Amino acid sequence: MLTTSPDHIIDLIREYSEEAPIVVEGKNDVAALNDLGIFSVVSVNAHGGPVGTIDFLAEGGTREIIILTDYDRRGEELHKRLAELALSAGIRVNDNLRKKLREVTHVRYVENLARIIRGEKIG
Question: Is the domain 6-117 a CATH 3.20.20.70 member?
Answer without folding.
Answer: no
